[in-house]
Specification:
Length: about 375
């Protein structure tokens, strides 16, 4: 299983200058190569290398391996959409492989620049330290807007031994409650995320209206803070759910929300902003890879009617939803939080199909990625 580890580099002023110049020259060469690839419709790196390798080295001063990596990156970008010419920002990621990058000990990395190699220390947490020995393939050198340097490393880690399960934890994902499980009626409240979203939304609007040079600098500094906070919250929620499943020997059942943005409408600017900030895909991805590493089965079920069906008697009716937050069954009178009731239904669908999981059943159950 391939994962990505992010290492923060802490270069001195001279090393940072060399890295910056190398990244800028690399992307300058990539833009030039993109024009050749687009004009001549070349998406094969061997073919592009035969045509442009010598000239790209002479024109931009790249080393032989830098030129090869640059050609490879351009072909990958062009192959994704051949209808338009790829464009690379001045500080887009710069590719490295074992010929241009090597780790020296547990806290330093050697990177090739236009002026030779530089030895750069990096910050290493326990999570990265455990997984770094499984490094595989290329790495990307990234310079962020705030001036911080990062090395994005792809690693290959073994998947956990699958455990046999007969029961599941149902997970219903929403906005008011980021995730509600069939075990916990309270769920994981989305109020902290919503509070941060509103704060940054108001701040962005104010700075954009102001339009001064200082306001623009402030926009750059605060960009990404909301996404980072949401990502941290999703990591914490997914970790809690996976730990609970592992402790009790159960699998995890989630909704298949593919295409949900096209089916759900939101009226008003704030409602649209709230919907666009709904990070269900990220939470599902975090749950998927954490569960896979732990050997816990994770499946997706069809979410249709899970919010309108009573988890006690099975009665399905639109009127069962007394409000957005409250569920009251018209048939048996069962009442509960609507998200918790939906999570119980998701769990029941997964359990009912677990015995003969063929990929096609009433719930449309499937494993993520299938």
């Amino acid at each position: 299983m391939k994962l990505v580890v992010q290492l923060q580099l802490v270069p001195d002023a001279e090393s940072a200058r060399k890295l910056r110049e190398s990244v800028e020259r690399f992307n300058e060469a990539a833009n030039w190569l993109a024009g050749i690839a687009f004009d001549q419709q070349i998406s094969n790196k061997i073919s592009l290398q035969k045509i442009a390798y010598q000239e790209v080295r002479e024109r931009f001063g790249l080393s032989s391996q830098m030129a090869c990596l640059c050609i490879h990156r351009v072909c990958e970008a062009y192959r994704r959409d051949k209808s338009k010419r790829p464009k690379f920002r001045t500080h887009s990621a710069m590719s490295h492989d074992i010929r241009t990058m090597s780790f020296k000990g547990i806290d330093r990395v050697s990177l090739l620049t236009l002026e030779g190699r530089v030895l750069v220390p990096f910050l290493l947490g326990s999570y990265q330290a455990e997984r770094l020995p499984q490094r595989k393939g290329q790495c990307d050198l990234v310079l962020r807007k705030d001036g911080k340097w990062f090395l994005i490393v792809t690693i290959d880690v073994p998947e956990g031994t699958p455990i046999p399960v007969t029961d599941f934890i149902g997970v219903d994902m929403g906005i008011a409650r980021v995730a509600s499980t069939s075990d916990n009626a309270e769920g994981h409240c989305g109020k902290p995320v919503e509070r941060i979203r509103r704060k940054h939304n108001v701040q962005r609007k104010r700075l954009q209206r102001k339009g001064t040079r200082g306001a623009k600098k402030k926009l750059v500094r605060v960009s990404g803070k909301e996404a980072k906070f949401r990502k941290h919250q999703n990591h914490c929620i997914s970790k809690t759910i996976v730990e609970s499943a592992k402790r009790t020997g159960r699998g995890i059942a989630i909704e298949n929300l593919e295409g949900i943005r096209g089916r759900v409408t939101a009226r008003g600017g704030d409602a649209q902003n709230k919907l666009s900030g709904w990070s269900f895909h990220q939470l599902a991805a975090f749950l998927s890879y954490k569960a896979t590493l732990a050997g816990i089965p994770i499946v997706q079920v069809d979410p249709r009617n899970t919010s309108k069906t009573c988890s006690v008697c099975g009665h399905c009716e639109r009127g069962n939803r007394k409000s957005q937050a409250e569920f009251v069954c018209k048939h048996c009178g069962f009442s509960a939080y609507a998200d918790w009731n939906a999570a119980r239904n998701i769990r029941a669908l997964a359990v009912s199909c677990n015995a003969a999981r063929t990929g096609q059943c009433r719930s449309g159950i499937r494993t993520p990625g299938s």
